[in-house]
From TrEMBL:
Protein's name in the database: Selenoprotein O
UniProt-recorded Gene Ontology molecular function terms: AMPylase activity; ATP binding; metal ion binding
Pfam family, one: SelO
PANTHER family for this protein: PROTEIN ADENYLYLTRANSFERASE SELO, MITOCHONDRIAL
Transmembrane parts of this sequence: none
UniProt source species: Candidatus Contendobacter odensis Run_B_J11
Family: Belongs to the SELO family.
Keywords tagged on the record: ATP-binding, Magnesium, Metal-binding, Nucleotide-binding, Nucleotidyltransferase, Transferase
Known cofactor(s): Mg(2+)
Amino acid sequence: MNTDNLSVLGLTIDYGPYGWLEPYDPAWTPNTTDASGRRYCYANQHHIELWNLSRFGRALTPLLQAAEGIEQGLTVYRTTFERTYRELVAAKLGLETLEDTAGEKLLADLLELLQACRD
């Protein structure tokens, strides 16, 4: 999900290369040109989205009165993504929350187990 594949609405607009993540592999990327660096791999998608948004914000800076609004927007994205991700995972696991130390450990252990069992 690089910058030329994302619309202002936050939609992914590129249809290839793409693929399905069947066995859990956070380093997986369908893009053969990304195979060596894995910049756009599954585990990095939320970081790349934040980077894309920061580039968009930088492009808008000359049009805006205050650049700190862009930083505030990036902070909102980051906290909203993290909260929503944990809420969705908790719901999948039948839990109310993953917002404590035990929840964080459970999530880390689960992802580690999924990766270990992929083959």
